[in-house]
Amino acid sequence: MSDVTSKDNKQSWFYSDIVKNHFFHPRNFIEDGEIDERRFNSIGKVGSPACGDELRVWMKVDPQSERILEFRWRTFGCGSAIASTSMASVVVTENGGMTLDEARKLKPQDIIDRLGGLPQRKIHCSVLCDKALRDAINDYYRRTEQFDKIIAEASRVIDSIAKVTDHDIETAVLEGAQTLEQVQQKTKVGIGNPSCLPAVEELIRFYKEKYFG
C-alpha cells in the first residue's frame, strides 16, 4: 500500500498497488488530439463538482451483440479518478466485452473492489467513471434510435425551500458526510423545512449502504 499524508498530518490515504499501477500505467487512456471519433459509435462525458474532475469516454459497440469492443477515455482528474476509469475500461472490455445491459449494471463498488479499495474520501471518483459509462450507453441508444432504452439521470427535489436534491445528498455522502448533521452542514437541507428530514435520513442510509456497504 502507498500512504499519502496531508500537509497538516491529519489525514492519511492508503492506495493499493493496483491503484498505483493503473495510475502510473493507465489502460486505454488516450491523449488529447489522438482520438478519431469516426472509429467510435458512442461518446459519454461527465464532470464532478465534488473534486473538479472532468471525464470523457469513447466506446465502440458491436451493433449485433451490443457488446463493448473498445473503451477509450481521457480525464482531467486526480489519481483515483484515473485509476478508477482505467480499471473500468478493462472491466467492460475483457472476455469479449460486456453487453450494454451488463455494463449498465456495473456499480462503483465493483470498480473499487477490483482496485483493492480506495480511500473513503476518494470514492466519488469511482462514481465519475460509472456516470460517464452510463452517459455513453445512453448516447449509443440515442444514435441507434432505441429511445425506449435511454435512462435519464434524474434528480428529485427533497427540500423545496433550500432547493436540495437527492443528487446533492448523494454527493455529500460521497464526500464523507455520514450523519444528518454533517449532510446539513454541506447542503443546508431541512434547516428551514424540517418536514423533509425523514426522507433525508432515509437517503443517507441508502447511499451509505450503496457505496460503503
Q: Could you please describe the fold and organization of this structure?
A:
This protein is α+β, with helices and mostly antiparallel strands and about 210 residues long. The longest helix is centred in the middle third of the chain and has 20 residues, at about 125-145. The chain has helices spanning about 15-25, 80-95, 100-105, 110-115, 125-145, 165-175, 180-185, 195-210; strands at about 1-5, 10-15, 40-45, 55-60, 70-75, 155-160, 165. It has two domains: about 1-150, Sufe protein. Chain: A, CATH 3.90.1010; about 155-210, Arc Repressor Mutant, subunit A (Orthogonal Bundle). Strand 1 (about 1-5) and strand 2 (about 10-15) form a beta hairpin. It contains eight helices and seven strands. Residues about 1-10 have low confidence and may be disordered. A three-stranded antiparallel β-sheet has the order 3-4-5.
